[in-house]
Write a structure and sequence with these properties.
The chain is of the alpha/beta class. It has one domain: Carbamate kinase, CATH 3.40.1160.10. It is built from ten helices and 14 strands. The strands form three sheets. The protein has an eight-stranded mixed sheet, sandwiched between helices. Strands 5-4-7-8 form a four-stranded mixed sheet. A two-stranded antiparallel sheet has the order 10-11. It is globular. The chain binds adenosine-5'-triphosphate (ATP) and magnesium ion (MG). The site of magnesium ion has 5 residues, from loops.
Length: about 270
């Protein structure tokens, strides 16, 4: 299929959580290389028209822990704060380079897209970002790969521009039809499933059950400075009101990435 034609259909954004691609609970910086190779193969094996237009990944242990330790998202005043900001950014670039290399080795033309070189935050919310080059990359059959980063805050210092937020921003900009959040749990539950085994999964979240769903939403069992599951669902909910549905699924399960891209209803669907 010619590239122009495939890109018209190819309109999903896939986010791979830091909980999938790193050992998020471990302070050591460990990439889950085998997991990533398996996922890259699953992406490579779907028909070009079903491949995500854009990939986004989270930071996992490469980001949340250094931010929680140094608190750069709360204030940047001293030289050691500035060094921690730079260190946090560089760690994300290093993680991203490893992720992109793995996809490239599996035959997917993944290219890094550094969001904090144009993204600006205002009071912790994404104020603006230059995404126009994404269109050109996607049109030519490349798969841009965005990732969570510390971004300049207009009122001073930096805030974390998360992979979850970038997923929504990219999907909105490209008018994607679907977003997929791959994480380490099989969707959204009425209680945190990593703490409460007696939990029940929501197959769908919409305005009909939102009042019940929101009570069980908490952050993460791991260190997560961008809201964990609650942050993800709130982001997705905003977008679903604009007609772009989301699916949150367990990307650590073998075959799951391939299956959601093909349209299987895994995990939890968020449609307004
Ligand atoms: N009601 C809930 N249903 C499902 N998961 C929940 C719920 N409440 C809290 N969680 C937590 O959310 C976690 C997933 O979010 P988290 O932000 O840690 O992952 P991620 O987005 O994949 O990683 P990253 O932020 O590094 O990209 C789960 O591991 C679980 O601990
Ligand atoms: Mg998270």
């Amino acid at each position: 299929m010619p590239v122009e034609q495939t890109t018209i259909i190819q309109r999903s954004v896939l986010k791979l959580g830091g909980s999938v691609i790193t050992v998020k609970g471990d302070p050591a910086l460990i990439l889950r290389r085998r997991e990533l190779e398996r996922i890259a193969e699953e992406v490579a094996s779907v028909h070009a028209s079903l491949r995500p237009a854009v990939l986004v990944h989270g930071a996992g242990s490469f980001g949340h822990q250094i931010v929680a330790r140094t608190r750069i998202h709360e204030r940047v005043e001293s030289e050691s704060d500035r060094l921690a900001w730079a260190e946090t950014q560089i760690l994300q670039n290093e993680l991203n380079a490893m992720v992109c290399r793995i996809f490239l080795n599996k035959g997917v033309p993944a290219v890094p897209y550094q969001a904090s070189s144009s993204g600006r935050m205002l009071n912790g919310k994404l104020q603006s970002i230059e995404l126009r080059p994404l269109r050109g990359l996607v049109k030519q059959g490349l798969m841009p790969v965005l990732y969570g980063v510390p971004a300049v805050e207009e009122t001073g210092g930096c805030r974390i521009l998360s992979g979850d937020t970038l997923t929504v921003a990219a999907a909105r900009f490209l008018q994607a039809s679907r977003i997929f959040y791959g994480t380490d749990v099989d969707g959204v539950f009425n209680k945190n499933p990593t703490k409460k085994p007696d939990c029940k999964k929501w197959a769908k979240i919409s305005q009909k059950n939102w009042d019940q769903v929101k009570h069980g939403l908490t952050g993460s069992s791991n260190t997560d400075v961008t809201g964990g599951m609650a942050g993800k669902v709130y982001e997705a909910l905003q977008l679903s009101r604009e007609g772009i549905s989301a699916r949150i699924f367990d990307a650590t399960m073998e075959g799951s990435v391939n299956r959601v891209l093909k349209g299987e209803p895994l995990g939890t669907e968020i449609t307004w």
